[in-house]
Design a protein that fits this description.
Blueprint lengths: L8 E5 L12 H6 L9 H14 L4 H4 L1 E6 L9 E6 L4 E5 L6 E6 L32 E6 L6 H8 L4 E2 L2 E2 L11 H7 L5 E9 L9 E13 L2 E12 L4 E12 L1 H6 L4
Antiparallel strand pairs: 1-3, 2-5, 2-9, 3-4, 4-5, 6-10, 7-8, 9-12, 10-11, 11-12
Length: 262
C-alpha cells in the first residue's frame, strides 16, 4: 500500500467519452432515456490516479482503491474532483447539488483475490449471462492497443505518459475488465457499479497484455441486473499489472421493462 501522504487538492475537469460501446454511445444511451453516452467509470478514475501520480506517488506500483459509481458523467461535462488526505478518499461531483457522481477510498487492507491461472473456457454459447452455472467460469482475452490516441487521452485526464523513459498506457484503456463480458456474452450495455483495484506495476505502450477473470456471482439492485467478477491484468511477459474486483450492471431495469420481462 502507498504510504506517502498526498496533498489535498480540488480541481475542475471535463472528462471525455471516447468509448463507442453500449451505454457510452449517445444514440444507445438516449434510446434508454439518458441525456447521452456515459463517460466510462475507469476514465473518471484515471483523472484521480493522474493527480496522485503527478504528486509523485508510485500509484501504479502500490496504489489501492475502493470505487463507487452513483450517477453518470456526460462527455465534456464540468465536474469537480477532490482528493482528501484526511479521509484518504476522492470524490467527483457535478454542479447539480445531488452529491457525488463517483467516490472512493484509497486504503484497502485486504489482500487481492486469487485469480485462477489454468485454461479459460471458450465462449459459453447458449448460456445467458446471469445463469447460476456461470459462477466460477474462467475467461481470458489478450490485447495489444493502438497507441494513436494515447497522447490525446492522457492530455484530457492529466495522466503522465513517461516513466523512466518509457511511454505509459493511460490506465483507462486497460483497467476495465468488462471487455471479458463483451467478448464472452456480447453484452455492450454495461454500467460500472463498483469495484476495487490493487495496482502492482505499470503497463507500457510497447507491451501487450492479458486479462483473466472469473465470475463470482450475480445480484440485482433496484431491478438492475449485476455481474460480479474478479480479474487479473498481466503484461505480455507475465508480470502482474493489476488485480480487480468488478461489479457492472449488464441489464438495466428499464431495458427489462421494454423487453416485457418482469
Amino acid at each position: 500500500m502507498v504510504t506517502t501522504r498526498f496533498e489535498a487538492r480540488e480541481w475542475i475537469a471535463r472528462p471525455r467519452n471516447l468509448s463507442p460501446n453500449g451505454i457510452h454511445d449517445d444514440d444507445r444511451a438516449q434510446e434508454l432515456g439518458f441525456e447521452g453516452g456515459f463517460v466510462t467509470g475507469v476514465v473518471l478514475y484515471e483523472h484521480i490516479a493522474a493527480e496522485l501520480m503527478n504528486q509523485g506517488l508510485p500509484w501504479l506500483e502500490e496504489g489501492r482503491v475502493d470505487l463507487r459509481f452513483r450517477r453518470p458523467v456526460y462527455h465534456d461535462e464540468a465536474v469537480t474532483c477532490r482528493v482528501d488526505p484526511e479521509t484518504n478518499s476522492y470524490e467527483i461531483r457535478g454542479d447539480d447539488g445531488m452529491g457525488a457522481r463517483s467516490s472512493g477510498v484509497f486504503a484497502i487492507d485486504d489482500d487481492p483475490p486469487s485469480i485462477p491461472s489454468g485454461d479459460a473456457a471458450t465462449s459459453p454459447a447458449g448460456v445467458p449471462l446471469g445463469d447460476p452455472s456461470l459462477v466460477g467460469l474462467v475467461m481470458r482475452i489478450e490485447e495489444r492497443l493502438d497507441p494513436a490516441r494515447f497522447d490525446e487521452i492522457a492530455e484530457s485526464s492529466g495522466f503522465p505518459r513517461d516513466l523512466g523513459g518509457r511511454k505509459l498506457i493511460p490506465i483507462g484503456q486497460w483497467i476495465n475488465p468488462i471487455d471479458l463480458i463483451y467478448e464472452y456474452f456480447g453484452r455492450s450495455t454495461t454500467i460500472h457499479f463498483a469495484g476495487r483495484i490493487w495496482h502492482h506495476s505499470p503497463l507500457f505502450e510497447d507491451e501487450s497484455f492479458t486479462t483473466t477473470g472469473v465470475i463470482t456471482g450475480f445480484s440485482e439492485r433496484r431491478g438492475n441486473k449485476i455481474v460480479e467478477f474478479d480479474a487479473l491484468v498481466a503484461a505480455g511477459d507475465g508480470r502482474p499489472v493489476a488485480t480487480i474486483e468488478h461489479s457492472s450492471v449488464y441489464q438495466l431495469a428499464r431495458e427489462r421493462v421494454a423487453e416485457g420481462e418482469s
